Structures are given as C-alpha cells and as structure tokens.
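Hey L., structure's done. Input below.
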Amino acid sequence: MEIVKTVRMGLLHDFYGPLLNPKQRSCIPLYYEADLSLAETAEKFGSSRQAVYDLLKRTEKILEEYESKLGLLKKYEERQKRYTMILEAAKGTSKEEEIRALVAELERIETADV
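Output:
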C-alpha cells in the first residue's frame, strides 16, 4: 500500500470522519491505520472482500469530494508550512522562545476538539 495515500486517507478521515456513516467511519481506520487486509477487514464487518473493497472506494471518493469542496486538509497543511517558516525565521533571535511558545499555542488550538 502506498504510504502517501495511507497518510492522506488517515488525515482526511480525521477531518471529515464525523460526516461519514458509522460503517464508512470504521472502515478507513481498520484498513489504512490498523493495516488490516481486505480479508481481515471483511471478517471484522462480517462481509465479503468485494463488499469491503467497494465500501473503501466509495468512502475514499466521499472523503476526496469533501476535501475538494471544503479544503480543510489543504488549509491545515499550508498553516503547518507557515508555522515551520515562522520558527525558522525566529531561530537565533531574541524573541525565539516567545515565538516558539506562540506557535505551539496556535497548534494546540488548531488540534483541540471543538
């Protein structure tokens, strides 16, 4: 399995998982995060490999559609780049510790459950 896709699906699930139905919500972590095979995932669901494959493909498509419309992952990644740039620019300055603390606070706020 491609690592980039695995990470992307995990992140999309983190952002949009609450919008999925319970079966869709549970298939992504089993397959991508727990690294279960289609057969193992099907066993957990009590269904066939083909049914799980179809569910995964539909769920992936839904997650990608949410991202194309809302762009939450893209915005998150852009903010993370900016945080890194701010920290790099602050290195060696008299305000470095203060800036690091502010960036850490922003990251904490961003990842806090609402």
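DSSP finds six helices and no strands in the chain. The mean pLDDT is 92.

-- N.
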